[in-house]
Every structure is written in C-alpha cells, then in structure tokens.
Design brief:
The protein is of the alpha/beta class. It has one domain: Spore Coat Polysaccharide Biosynthesis Protein SpsA, Chain A. The strands form two sheets. Strands 1, 4, 5, 6, 7, 8, 9 and 10 form an eight-stranded mixed beta sheet that branches.
C-alpha cells in the first residue's frame, strides 16, 4: 500500500502554506513524511502547483529512489476529494492511506490497524465523537468510479461517497486502544493551533511569522 499526503490546500486560515511551515529543523511536510515513511512502499504527495519545484527539491533523494512521488491535482479546485482522486490515480498499489498535511500527530499502531481492516472494503475510515475522519483513511481504486462521478457533479464532500461504497467504520472504542487520547484528531488549521503544536514539540521553535 502507498501513503498519500494531501498538501494542496490553500491554508486560508493560516495565511500561508501549512505544509511548508518550519518547526525547528524540519518543515511540517517533512515531519509527516518521517512519521509514515516506514509504513508504506511509497508516499505520494499531492501538492499545490506553486510548491512543486520546492517539494521536488526537498524530496529529491526520495524521488530518485522512488520512495516519494510529488504530483498536482488532476482536477484543480476540487478540494480534498480531488486530492484523494489524484493520489489514487497516481498510486501503483490497489489501496492508499490518505493523510492530511496538517495532522502531525500520527500514530503508527493506529494506522497499521486501519490498514489491516481494509480487505474487502472500498474505504476504511475512523468515526469518532467528532464525526468521520476521511483524511486519515484507506481508499481503494475500486472507489474511483464513484469519486469520479461526484467530482463531475461537483459533490465535493468526501463523506458523500460513503453511501455508494462498501465502507468499514473504525469506531472510537477501537481507536482508543491505540490512541487513548485521540491525539491523531489534532489538526493545524489556525495560527493558534500551529503555535500550540510548536510548543508541544520539544526543541521546536514557533515560526517568527506567527
């Protein structure tokens, strides 16, 4: 299975591309890659076109060794669902694990468990008190036809595809066995959340621009 990092968002609430914010010696996109690189055969990064050159340079060695592939959305301006579609199309595997670039608190044991439940399903997605977590989930190429249909009709909410697919929901009681405090849910959508993340990471400095 390949991993897919969605890094093509506009980051409007932060004011700059979150994936390329620096914490200590690493960019956020690097931190997430380092957290998941040992779990997957390859990592596909779906990027904003303006950042392609920088990301290709940043991951040059991994791209050369085919550990990383950096792409842009096949269908621009289609949000996360478009990113999932692009990552699935680019992947050489039948299934991918999709992760948003603003969810740095990855839990390898939880990801392995989610992946282990994917046999026979089009989608495997966590479900917590907060609702579905479609950007921390497994998607199969068998879902492509439904995704294409929704993109064509501009139905861009990711969870809207679930009713037409065979979906395995990972419930909160299962998740807490691996991530008792549900840390994986924490994402960085605002400057406040970015600062909080920086303070939680030992030795990381809050970017001066924040």
């Amino acid at each position: 299975m390949d991993g897919v990092i969605l890094a093509g968002g506009k980051s409007t609430r932060v004011g700059k591309d979150k994936a390329l914010l620096r914490f200590g010696g690493n960019l956020l996109i690097e931190l997430i890659f380092l957290n998941i690189k040992d779990l997957f055969e390859r990592v596909v990064i779906v990027a904003n076109p303006v950042n392609i050159t920088r990301l290709n340079s940043l991951f040059y060695n991994q791209i050369k060794s085919r550990k990383v592939q950096v792409i842009t959305d096949i269908l621009p301006e289609k949000g996360p669902l478009g990113g999932i579609y692009s990552g699935l199309k680019a992947s050489e595997s039948d299934k991918v694990f999709v992760l948003a670039c603003d969810m740095p608190f990855t839990n390898q044991k939880l990801i392995r468990y989610i992946v282990s439940q994917s046999e026979g399903y089009d989608v495997v997605v966590p479900h917590t008190y907060r609702g579905f977590e479609p950007l921390h989930a497994v998607y199969s190429k068998s879902a492509l036809k439904v995704i294409e249909e929704h993109l064509r009709h501009n139905k861009l909410k990711v969870s809207s595809i679930f009713g037409k697919l065979k979906v395995r929901f990972i419930e909160e009681c299962e998740i807490r066995k691996f991530d008792p405090n549900l840390m994986f849910l924490n994402n960085l959508n605002t400057k406040h959340e970015l600062k909080k993340f920086a303070m939680q990471k030992s030795g990381f400095k809050i970017p001066a621009s924040l």
